[in-house]
Amino acid sequence: METTQASGVIPAAVEHRRGEFLISTDHELLNLDVIHGFLTNCYWAKGTPRETVARSIQHSLCFGIYDGSGAQVGFARVVSDFATVAYLGDVFVLESHRGRGLSKWLMECIVQHPALQNLRRWILLTRDAHGLYSQFGFTPVKAPERYMELHRPHVYETTP
Q: What's the rounded Cα separation, in Å, for the pair 141 and 146?
């Protein structure tokens, strides 16, 4: 996958190995078919166009999980200024590879990444993975009245 690094903002690739699995931030290893295929069918990104997923990857620090054959089996991306804040999104492990501790290992790699240290705030949204994220210090928003959003859930739908 082609990536551009605006002014060198996306850090150099980092790799972690555990058994037959690899977690890497190398954009060249990412499989857009796997990522888009999963995201376009999940509750938080259903219907997102392939080009939009590609652009989101290009401008994020991405973590891919790969099995011993090199096939991509998981993904997460972090949007950050690498100084004060990070948004964690699009985290998944393919159903065929769940139950092996890969999501927990992925989160360990993300929160330990050298470019993501000493950030004041991490943000994420989840419907059903609170148990995973709470293991890494994430808590419900303490002052929800301070948060605002401009949410356009139908932005990718086309009208006839």
A: 9
Helices 32-39 and 50-58: crossing angle in degrees, nearest 10, is 120
Query: What tokens appear for 24 in the block?
Result: 């890497």
Which pLDDT band holds residue 131 (cuts at 50, 70, 90)?
very high
Q: What's the rounded Cα separation, in Å, for the pair 55 and 154?
A: 18
Instruction: Please give the structure tokens belonging to residue 131.
Output: 């148990």
Both tokens of residue 43? 């509750």
Cite the beta strand spans of the chain per DSSP E: 15-18, 21-24, 61-66, 72-80, 85-93, 121-124
Residue-wise pLDDT tens digits, 91-112: 999 999 999 999 999 999 999 9
pLDDT score recorded for residue 160: 56
Rounded Cα distance, 89 and 101, in Å: 19
